Protein: ATP synthase F(1) complex subunit delta, mitochondrial
Amino acid sequence: MAAVRSFSRLLSHRTLNRIITRGYADEMKFTFAAGNQIFYDGASIKQVDVPSFSGAFGILPKHVPTLAVLKPGVVTVFENDGSVKKVFVSSGTVTINEDSSVQIIAEEAATIDQLDLAAAREVLSKAQSELSSATTDQAKAEAAIAVEVGEALVKAAE
Structure:
């Protein structure tokens, strides 16, 4: 029994040390890139909100380390000067590290002001047409993904 108590104290001490040495910060170092553009490269920011398949969530300094998959939608970045930047992403990953650094790697991304609502509606219409005419499981899955991206794109452009 004494060994169990000693182990639990050791575990608690190690856990506490891990939390203390995690290096919680009052700011986040933020990197955000896609195949076509680098939006942030190690910038210091206040907060970022991301669309995720496990539910949209906000990331602040001191966030628990996390790895998540981005779903189509808008990433909202709250910069230290109070400005807000919104970027549409088609998909990607977000990594939150123990040192409060955050990395977003998007498959494709564009700032909201670069989106054309008419073109987004055309993309959605074409994807819906492809979905209704798809005959194989693979074609149906690919078209369903395109519809999801198209819907998110239209919503972001409105």
Q: What stands out?
A: The first helix runs from residue 2 to 21. The domain at 24-113 is CATH 2.60.15.10 (ATP Synthase; domain 1). Helices lie at 2-21, 117-133, 137-157.
